[in-house]
């Protein structure tokens, strides 16, 4: 039976380097772990995509443990070359017990790009040679949404996952000169604040009370730079 400490020790180099995404999950009383690398190739502009073999393995892990977490030593945890196994173990155990950095959310987010691209219309020879009247119909202005469709759309967009916004924002901010050393952003719904943790352990807190998602992004940047 493998312990969490054993798994963290086994993947300590991947966690310190901060390139791979390391998944941790429980199977009964035993712990499992595996490292994954996003494919930057065709989906580079969409934030990376999970290769099919990895996606299949992730689905199996989620089936085994719906609370499985995924950790990146640069994006979601303040790890570096000097981080000890005990230090990393503490952070990873806390994230698992507090249901943070869940693999199910990660899988859904990074598979979204592929789903969106796959939904684009494919221009085939048959379609290209369609009857003129059919092409004219396709070029007509779209009809206004029905009231029911608008209501459904509003329900889908009425709430925003602010932690997810923070998790997506952090890697972008690290591309800037001022925030290259940002480790991660954590949103606290209780206080409506965002805590920015830097690689040197220093933290800054941004007040984002009553903010929408876009307003929150603006306030985070203004208050932590």
Automatic annotation (TrEMBL):
<dbReference type="Pfam" id="PF18828">
    <property type="entry name" value="LPD15"/>
</dbReference>
<protein>
    <recommendedName>
        <fullName>Large polyvalent-protein-associated domain-containing protein</fullName>
    </recommendedName>
</protein>
<feature type="domain" description="Large polyvalent-protein-associated">
    <location>
        <begin position="2"/>
        <end position="106"/>
    </location>
</feature>
<dbReference type="InterPro" id="IPR040512">
    <property type="entry name" value="LPD15"/>
</dbReference>
